[in-house]
Structures are given as C-alpha cells and as structure tokens.
C-alpha cells in the first residue's frame, strides 16, 4: 500500500490515500462498537500517540512490556486506516483500544447508543498547526506544506488533510452532553501534570492503579521514554514513507512552541479567526490558560 500521492476524498474531507481507502472509511463510519471498546479521538498532532501510550500502560498496570513490543498502530489502530479490520480480527475482543481522527459528524452515528469509552484529546490549535507543519515536511504521504504562512491559512480555512480543526473540536465537544462516557483531556494537562492525568484516565477506564503503578506509567510515557521507544516513535516506518532525515515524529513535545513560529500578525489573525469560528462553543480555551499558568510558574522559579 504505497499510494503516497493519492488523496482519498470522503464526504468533503481529504485523507492521505496511503492509509485510507473508500472501503476503509466506509468500514469506520459503519463500525459496530462494543461497550467495552476504548476510543481515542483527536485531530492530528494533538497528543494522540501520547494517549495511546497512556491507555496501553494504564491497561497493563504500568508494565511496559506490551508498549515495548507491539507498535502503537497495532495495539490501538486507527479505525479509518486500511489495515484496521485485519488488526481488530486478531485483537483480544474483551478490551479493544481504537484510535480515530474522524470528525464527530462522520463517526457520531456509529456511536449512537454505544457505551464505548471515548477519550477526546485536544491541544492548543497554534501548537497543533506548528506540529502538523513540521510533520508535513517529513511525511511523504502528506502534501508539501509550502511556507508556514501558506500552511497556516490552509489550517484556518480547514482545507488541510483531515479537515477543519474547529469543526473537529466543536463537533466532539458539543456532544459531551448527549454522549455519556466522553472524557476530554488536553495535551497541556498531560504536559503539566502527567501523574494526575494518568489517574484521571485510569479512573475513567475503571482500572484503579496503586501509586507505584501510576508512577511506572508516568515513567514510561515521558517524552524521553517515548522518544526512545521504537514501537511508538515511528522509526520503524521506512524512509520513503517518513523521511527521518527531515525531522522526528517525537519532535519537541512542548507547550507553546507556536511562539517560535508565529509572527505577531499571524497570531492576531489566528486569534480573530478562532474567536469567530468558536463563537457559541461552550468550550473555554483551557490550553491558553494552562499555557499562561506554565509561563507564570517558569517566571517564579
Ligand atoms: S499523530 O500523527 O496525529 O498521531 O500525532 P500526535 O501523536 O497526535 O501528536 C504528535 C505530537 O505529540 C508530541 N508527543 C509528546 N509530547 C510530550 N510528551 C510526550 N510523551 C509526547 N508524545 C508525543 C510529539 O512530540 C508531537 O508534538 P511536537 O510539537 O511536534 O513535538
């Protein structure tokens, strides 16, 4: 399955043809969820891999054996990727961890009435845009990103692969009222207090852990530990698909990297588009608050 230059258009959204086909997208939107499923949902570059690692480690009570021997795309496959059906066929049926980047309007109908546990992961969209930009440079199944200014315009217009960040978060968040079992975790929460986040996830998944187990989870899903784990850092992916000379999947892992990339004008424009697109959305911009809290802590120390 190369199809590196193929764009798979599905219901108005473009997806990389290297990983998606019409059939795989149809499979996803018609998927029969089990109440025991755990579904990790995110817009790309929001902390998906990190949450896959957290869920894996929580489920194995902090034991890294599983996460060190099985690639993340096998232990928590993307529902919409072409290989998912085959992977799920051989997964233990009692607790499947599934990942998706699909927006709510595409996956919501399949989840109707399901008690599957959903973890929605979001991140400051400015950091998402920066991380996605760098990823476009190394991932040969994504289009050339052009310069950052151009890329940012596409991000704000929602014309990048995977669609609009705004529609993604608004869709999933607006459903917290109607879908039970949705836990919203931000990248910033994970970054500022990984220990507390892991406890939150373990309680949501009804996998209570003792303190030593939580500490083991924290240790094994730190940035450095994940960067060195080739089951998660994508170094297993051949160079023609991800050009490792052009960057690392585990790139910086920081909050607020956008400040190194955005000009003052780009930031103002981003803010104004954000305000208008998020009008009426109940979500408070938690990541900005958390970003500021971090800056204050840094200033005090
Ligand atoms: S993808 O392609 O959608 O699956 O990417 P995703 O996993 O959502 O996001 C990748 C970014 O998450 C960072 N990351 C982490 N940051 C801090 N700590 C840990 N443990 C961690 N694991 C992954 C990764 O470095 C990417 O962010 P950037 O800003 O590019 O470094």
TrEMBL record:
Enzyme Commission number(s): 2.8.2.-
Domain (Sulfotransferase): residue spans on this chain: 35-281
Record carries keyword NADP: no
Assigned keywords, A-Z: Catecholamine metabolism, Cytoplasm, Transferase
A Gene Ontology biological process term: catecholamine metabolic process
Molecular function in Gene Ontology: sulfotransferase activity
Pfam family, one: Sulfotransfer_1
InterPro entries: P-loop_NTPase, Sulfotransferase_dom
Subcellular localization(s) per the UniProt record: Cytoplasm
Main location: cytoplasm
Any single GO CC term annotated in Swiss-Prot or TrEMBL for this entry: cytoplasm
Homology family: Belongs to the sulfotransferase 1 family.
Name of the protein described by the UniProt record: Sulfotransferase
């Amino acid at each position: 399955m190369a199809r590196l230059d193929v764009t798979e258009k599905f219901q108005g959204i473009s997806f990389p043809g290297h990983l998606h086909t019409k059939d795989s997208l149809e499979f996803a939107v018609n998927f029969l969820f089990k109440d025991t499923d755990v579904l990790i949902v995110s817009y790309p570059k929001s902390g998906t891999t990190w949450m896959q690692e957290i869920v894996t480690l929580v489920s194995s009570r902090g034991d890294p054996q599983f996460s060190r021997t099985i690639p993340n795309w096998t232990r928590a496959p993307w529902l919409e990727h072409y290989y998912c059906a085959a992977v799920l066929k051989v997964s233990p049926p009692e607790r499947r961890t599934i990942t998706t980047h699909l927006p709510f309007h595409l996956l919501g109908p399949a989840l109707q009435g399901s008690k599957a546990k959903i973890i929605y992961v979001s991140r400051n969209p400015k950091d998402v845009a920066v991380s996605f930009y760098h990823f476009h440079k190394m991932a040969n199944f994504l289009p050339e990103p052009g310069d950052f200014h151009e890329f940012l315009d596409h991000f704000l217009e929602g014309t990048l692969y995977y669609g609009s960040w705004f529609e993604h978060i608004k869709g999933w968040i607006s459903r917290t009222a109607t879908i039970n079992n949705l836990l919203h975790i931000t990248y910033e929460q994970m970054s500022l207090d990984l220990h507390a986040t892991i406890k939150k996830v373990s309680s949501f998944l009804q996998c209570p852990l003792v303190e030593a187990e939580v500490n083991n989870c924290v240790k094994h899903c730190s940035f450095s530990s994940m960067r060195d784990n080739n089951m998660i850092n994508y170094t297993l992916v051949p160079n023609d698909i991800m050009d490792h000379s052009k960057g690392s999947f585990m790139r910086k892992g920081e909050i607020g990297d956008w400040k190194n990339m955005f000009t003052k004008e780009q930031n103002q424009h981003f803010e104004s588009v954000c305000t208008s697109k998020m009008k009426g959305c109940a979500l408070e911009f938690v990541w900005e608050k958390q970003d500021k809290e971090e800056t204050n802590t840094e200033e005090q120390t």
